[in-house]
Each structure stands twice: as structure tokens, then as C-alpha cells.
Write a structure and sequence with these properties.
Layout: E1 8-9, E2 12-14, E3 17-19, E4 25-29, E5 36-41, H1 45-64, H2 67-83, H3 85-96, H4 100-122, E6 127-132, E7 135-140, E8 146-150, H5 158-169, E9 173-177, H6 183-195, E10 203-205, H7 210-217, E11 224-228, H8 231-240, E12 248-252, E13 257-261, H9 267-279, E14 289-294, H10 297-310
Helix pairs in contact: 1-7, 2-4, 3-4, 3-6, 4-5, 9-10
Length: 320
């Protein structure tokens, strides 16, 4: 694993330059042992709006850049990420609290996201013409503008990448606000994008909590908001952007998922599947099981025995 010095000095990436925040001071300590991992200040409202201005200015040239050139930068990002994958996995494990092996799977998914996004955008031609009898149907794709990406704490690399990479490929500029619980991961990723050759202003980073997010959501120069997080915050964003259909809004929020066990032949296997679904990522996934429904008294009692036997044996970082 590559070495990393802690605490990381907190900085915001605004219009191509790294600057100290002018907002409230913030520290992020490891949930494992309390070690100080990131120390700095959040962006002020004025700095957040400056990031929007920088992204707007960069949009003209970035949207005119050849798709092949944008693809090349994204692939370079994936190459660099692959070279330093254990470094990022270690940072995720320390800052987020997930086991190192699980952080490694997230980084692998983040690398794969680049080629997946490239394959997807290549299926969308910028101009597609189809003959319809005496008429022609023409579909044109264009970048939308400045996109504001609000990242979650549970997957600090993979989930934001699912918004940032497609947005950049399509010719949009991006302002990224990571969860304040994973400030270091967000900052690490943006520095890597710089090393990959992303032009100034195309990708900005603002640290902060709800106040920073609300300021950017309400800014009319932001053309789209891409959010992953809680139902409560997502609902507030939806209300804040109501009546603005010209602005893109994508909300990925929490789930309340049942797992049904019916006619199981192997209750030990069913219990293991249940535990994996409920407790992977400490239950902090929108796809995690929240409720278990077992059909039949006999099945219910058998499942209860298996779960009571296995759940107390769960150890962080180890397989079941």
C-alpha cells in the first residue's frame, strides 16, 4: 500500500485552484480509533458560488472538446486509480469505517465504471437520423451545463463516480460536494482527476454540509443536481427545485427492502444470504435487507435458530 500522511490538509478546488475554506472548521476522525484524518474548513457560500462561475466559464470549451479527448482523460483517470487502488482503499477503510477488503471491491467498481460509462455514451450518437417514410426523425444529444454532484458517505468513490464520469464524458462541467464524513476521499479523487489532465474549472470540489448543498441547489446557474443520500435530504432537495423542469434532478435515496424466505431447502444458506444482505457495509446500502419475511411456522423457527447462531459471530472484516 502507498503511504499517506495524516491528517490531510483540507482544501477546496475552486475554478482550478486549491484554496482553504472560509466556512466553519471541520475535522474528520476515523470511526475505528478516533485518529485525525482530515482537518480544514468548509467552503463559504461565496466560494461555492465562485465554483459555479468557474464551472460555467469552463463549460464552453469543455463542451466543444472532442469526445475522444474526454474519453482519453477518463481512461487516464482509471489508469491512475488502478495504480493507486490500495491507497484509496486504505483511505476509504479508515475514513468510512468499512473493512479493507470491502473498500477494495469499491475501488475496483470505481475503475470499471469508466469503461462502462464510455460504452454507454458511445451508444448515444450526437446526431442520429432515421427514415420514417417521407419524413426523417433526428435525435441530437448535447451537454446540459453545470452539474452539482452530492456524494454519500457509504460509497465515497464509486457512487459519485457514477454521476461524475458520465457527466464529464457528455461535456458537462461538475461541482462535487462529498459527504463531510468522507472529506478526505473526495479531495483525493479530485487531485487524481487533476493528474489525469482535467482542465481547470471543469471539476470543482466544495467541502461542507447542508448549508453548502442548499446554496448550490438554489443557485440558478446550476443546471442539474445529482444526489445520493437519505430520503429526508432528497425530499428537501426535491421541494427546493420544484417548478424548475429545465433543471435536471436525479435522486437516489434509501430503500426499505424486504427479503422473503419461502420453501427453503437449506436454512443455513438462507440465513447466510440474509445476514450478508442485512449487514454488508454495516447495513448502510440502499439495497440492504430491512425486513425478513418467512412463510410458515416451521421455516420461521428454523431461520430464527440459524440467525441466532450466526449473528453473534459476525466479526468486522471477516467472512461469515
Amino acid at each position: 500500500m502507498s503511504s499517506m500522511d495524516f491528517p490531510i490538509a483540507g482544501e477546496n478546488l475552486i475554478a482550478g485552484g486549491w484554496v482553504e475554506g472560509l466556512g466553519p472548521a471541520w475535522e474528520r476522525r476515523s470511526p475505528s480509533d478516533g485518529a485525525l484524518l482530515w482537518a480544514g474548513s468548509w467552503a463559504s457560500r461565496e466560494q461555492s458560488l465562485e465554483a459555479v462561475s468557474g464551472a460555467r466559464n469552463a463549460f464552453v470549451s469543455w463542451s466543444d472538446t472532442n469526445l475522444e479527448d474526454r474519453i482519453a482523460i477518463c481512461r487516464r483517470f482509471a489508469e491512475l486509480l488502478n495504480q493507486r487502488k490500495d491507497e484509496l482503499a486504505r483511505l476509504i477503510a479508515l475514513e468510512n469505517g468499512k473493512p479493507f477488503w470491502e473498500a477494495q471491491t469499491e475501488v475496483a467498481a470505481s475503475i470499471a465504471k469508466v469503461e462502462n460509462s464510455i460504452d454507454s455514451i458511445l451508444q448515444r450518437r450526437w446526431t442520429d437520423t432515421q427514415a420514417l417514410g417521407d419524413y426523417r426523425a433526428v435525435t441530437r444529444f448535447r451537454p446540459h451545463g453545470v452539474m452539482f454532484v452530492i456524494g454519500p458517505f457509504n460509497f465515497p468513490a464509486h457512487v459519485p463516480g457514477g454521476h461524475i464520469i458520465p457527466a464529464l464524458l457528455a461535456g458537462n462541467t461538475v461541482i462535487f460536494k462529498p459527504s463531510e464524513l468522507v472529506s478526505g476521499c473526495g479531495q483525493w479523487l479530485c487531485r487524481l482527476w487533476q493528474q489525469a489532465g482535467i482542465p481547470e474549472g471543469v471539476l470543482s470540489l466544495v467541502h461542507g454540509a447542508g448549508e453548502v448543498g442548499s446554496a448550490l441547489v438554489s443557485c440558478l446557474d446550476v443546471d442539474g443536481v445529482l444526489f445520493t443520500g437519505s430520503q429526508e435530504v432528497g425530499t428537501l432537495i426535491h421541494k427546493q427545485m420544484a417548478g424548475q423542469p429545465h433543471r435536471v434532478l436525479a435522486l437516489e435515496m434509501g430503500g426499505n427492502n424486504p427479503l422473503v424466505v419461502h420453501g427453503a431447502a437449506d436454512y443455513a444458506a438462507a440465513a447466510k444470504t440474509t445476514i450478508l444482505s442485512a449487514y454488508l457495509t454495516a447495513g448502510q446500502r440502499c439495497t440492504c435487507t430491512r425486513r425478513l419475511i418467512v412463510s410458515g411456522r416451521t421455516s420461521f423457527e428454523a431461520m430464527l435458530r440459524e440467525l441466532r447462531k450466526r449473528i453473534p459471530k459476525i466479526q468486522t472484516g471477516l467472512s461469515l
